[in-house]
Specification:
Blueprint lengths: L1 E4 L4 H4 L2 H9 L2 E4 L1 H7 L14 E4 L4 H8 L5 E4 L8 H8 L4 E3 L4 H9 L8 E4 L3 H12 L4 E4 L5 H11 L3 E7 L7 E3 L12 E7 L10
Parallel strand pairs: 1-4, 1-5, 2-3, 2-4, 6-7
Antiparallel strand pairs: 7-10, 8-9, 8-10
Helix pairs in contact: 4-5, 7-8
Length: 213
C-alpha cells in the first residue's frame, strides 16, 4: 500500500514523486473531489485516470483500507498523510506501507504568516464536538494549538472559545493556496469560514511563547 500526499492545492504542490506513484498505480483510493482535481494533470508526467480502478471513500477509512489492502492500492491524501491523516492509520494497520510526503495544511498556513511549524505545541483534528473540548483544554493550559477543521466548523469553535472567556490570538486559512484562499487574524472572522480551514490559536497569557503576528 502506498499513501501519497498531494498538498493543499495539487495544481501547485503535486510533486514529481507523487505524479509517478499515481501514474503507475492500477488501483487508486481517494475522495471524488481529489480525483477530479488531479485527473489530466500534465507536469513532469501525465496523469490519466481512465484506465485505473477507482475507489472513492465511502464510510469507514479503516474498513476501506482493510478491504483493498491486498490489491496494492495507491491512496491519495490531501495535504501530508502523516499530519493527522491516513498515513499513520495505515502504518498501524499494515506492515508494508510506503508514504510519499506532501505539504501539510499546517505548513501552508505557517508559511503564509512566517511562523515556525515547530512553534505549535498541540494539534487537534475536529471529528466531533468532543474534540472542541480538547482545543479549549489546550488553550486553558497555555498551549499554542493547531486545529484542523472538518465535521466541526470554525463557527462552533469560536462560539465555545468565546463562551469560556479565553482571550486568544489566531491565524487561520481557508482553502489555502487556491485562488479563492481566505486568511484571518481575528477570532470573530472565523464564523463564516468553511470546513476547509486550518487555524492556530494562541492563549494571550502565554507571554513566554512565540507570538502570532
Amino acid at each position: 500500500m502506498q499513501i501519497v500526499g498531494v498538498g493543499p492545492n495539487p495544481a501547485r504542490f503535486l510533486t514529481v514523486e507523487a505524479i509517478e506513484r499515481i501514474s503507475q498505480a492500477d488501483l487508486l483510493i481517494s475522495s471524488e473531489s481529489m480525483l477530479r482535481e488531479i485527473d489530466g494533470f500534465r507536469i513532469e508526467a501525465e496523469i490519466d485516470l481512465s484506465d485505473k480502478e477507482i475507489v472513492v471513500w465511502d464510510g469507514s477509512v479503516r474498513e476501506t483500507l482493510t478491504e483493498y489492502a491486498d490489491n496494492d492500492p495507491v491512496v491519495i491524501a490531501r495535504g501530508d498523510p502523516t499530519y493527522m491523516g491516513v498515513g499513520r492509520l495505515a502504518s498501524l494497520l499494515f506492515d508494508d506501507v510506503k508514504i510519499v510526503p506532501g505539504v501539510s495544511s499546517l505548513q501552508a498556513l505557517t508559511a503564509r504568516f512566517g511562523l515556525g511549524f515547530h512553534e505549535v505545541e498541540a494539534h487537534v483534528n475536529l471529528h466531533s464536538g468532543k474534540d472542541v473540548k480538547k482545543v479549549v483544554e489546550n488553550l486553558g493550559a497555555g498551549r499554542t494549538t493547531a486545529v484542523l477543521f472538518g465535521k466541526v466548523r470554525p463557527a462552533k469553535v469560536v462560539e465555545v472559545i468565546e463562551s469560556t472567556g479565553l482571550n486568544v490570538k489566531v491565524i487561520a486559512g481557508e482553502r489555502l493556496w487556491y485562488p479563492d484562499e481566505r486568511l484571518a487574524t481575528e477570532l470573530h472572522s472565523l464564523r463564516d469560514f468553511s470546513e476547509f480551514t486550518v487555524a492556530i490559536f494562541e492563549p494571550d497569557h502565554a507571554s513566554s511563547k512565540p507570538t502570532l503576528r
